[in-house]
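Translate sequence into C-alpha cells.
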Amino acid sequence: MSLRHHEIAEANHRILNPLVESQLRLLGQVARVGPGTRILDFASGKGEMLCRWAEWFGSGGVGVDLSAVFTASARARADELGVADRVSFVLGDAAAYESEAGAYDMVSCLGATWIGDGIVGTIDLMRPAVRPGGLILVGEPFWLEEPPPGAADALGFGEGDYLSLGGTFDRLDTAGVELVEMVLANQDSWDRYEAAHWVTIADWLAANPGDPDHAAMCDFLDRERGAYLRYGRRYLGWGVFVTRPR
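Result follows.
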C-alpha cells in the first residue's frame, strides 16, 4: 500500500493506530510522562500522541514522519491545542533521522517497525537517542492465537513478521530491553480504527471517480474489509510495549 493510500484511508483519523483517546492517555500515565518529559516519536503520523501528551501532561518533543500530509496535520494540531512551543514535527525518514545521543527521556515508534525491518532493528535505531534510564515505546501487532494458513498474507504481513504475545516478549528480550509496562488495544478500539477506514475510503471513492488511484483504492477497501472480518478481528492484537534498555 502506497503512502498516498494511507493518507486517503486515514484522512479522518486522529490516532493512526488501534488506540482510542482514553488508551492514549493511559499510555502516557503508565509511561510516567510529565512536565518537561522530552520525547522523540518515529513515524509520528498526525502527531496526536505528542500533541495530546503536551496538552495533558506538559511534555514536549519532536516527531518525524515521511508524509507531508500527516506532518502538516500534526503541525496544525499543535497550533490548535496551543502546544506548538513544546512540540515540533520534521518531514523525513525516521530510519535516517539523526538526533543528539541521549537527548530524550523517551523514544517511541507506534506501529511502524518496518522502519528497522522489525521490532529488534527498530529498537536499535531508537536506542542511541534515549538517555540512560529512559524509556523506549514500541507499538506492534501480535497474534492472539495461532492464525490459520493464509491469514498473514490476507492481512498484508509476511510469515513470521509477527508472533504471539509471548513471542513478542522474547523479541524484546533479544533487542536488549526490559518490558516494564504495556497498553493493549481491545476489540472495540480495533473496530473503531479499522471500520473508520471503510467509510473514509467509500466517501473518497464517491467523490473522486476519475482519480488515478480509484481502482487501487477500490481493491484495497475490498481486501481490508474481508481480511479484518475473516482474520484480523479474531486473531490479531496490537499493543504498545513500554521498555527500558538494559
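Note: The radius of gyration is 18 Å.
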